[in-house]
Structures are given as structure tokens and as C-alpha cells.
Design brief:
30% helix, 3 helices, 92 residues, 4-stranded antiparallel sheet, alpha+beta
Length: 92
């Protein structure tokens, strides 16, 4: 499943650490938005990573948004690079 991780972290240092940590799960599609193709088994690790870097008491915000397969297929990019696609099977 594809998850969008959207965050607003007020502290530059923590935001940078979170940005680097999220590279292990997906690719950035905007400054504070990551496109993460992960299955259910990796979701707890992603949540732990977020918890290490996010401080709600300092008004940090994070949204984990699942994209269903239909949403993923019909997503449009109006400007910028295309969204990453999961590799498919090629039958020859």
C-alpha cells in the first residue's frame, strides 16, 4: 500500500532528521511530503520513526494518509516529476 507522510515540524534540526529518516521508507514528493510504498509489516516501524522525531507538545503535526490502489492509479501530477510507481511484472 502507498502511504503519504505529510508533516509540519517547527524545529529545523528535528525536521532534517525526520526527512533523512523517511528516506528509508519512501521518496520525497514535496518538501514535507513523502510517498512511501510500504506493506502492513513495515507500518509499525514507520510509526516508531515518526514518534522519535515528532513532538506534539511543540505543535508538530503529522498525517499518515493511505492511498488505495484506485487513488494511486488515478493520481495526477500537474507539475513536477511523476509519482514513483511500484515495479510491475513484465511477461515476455
Amino acid at each position: 500500500m502507498i502511504w503519504l507522510v505529510i508533516y509540519d515540524i517547527g524545529d529545523d534540526r528535528r525536521r532534517g532528521k525526520l526527512y533523512r529518516a523517511l528516506h528509508g521508507y519512501g521518496v520525497p514528493v514535496q518538501r514535507s511530503v513523502f510517498h512511501c510504498p510500504i506493506d502492513a509489516s513495515k507500518l509499525p516501524a514507520l510509526r516508531r520513526t515518526l514518534a522519535r522525531h515528532v513532538r506534539p507538545e511543540e505543535a508538530d503535526k503529522v498525517l499518515l494518509l493511505p492511498l488505495c490502489s484506485t487513488c494511486e492509479r488515478t493520481a495526477e501530477v500537474l507539475a513536477g516529476p511523476p509519482l514513483p510507481r511500484k515495479p510491475g511484472l513484465l511477461l515476455v
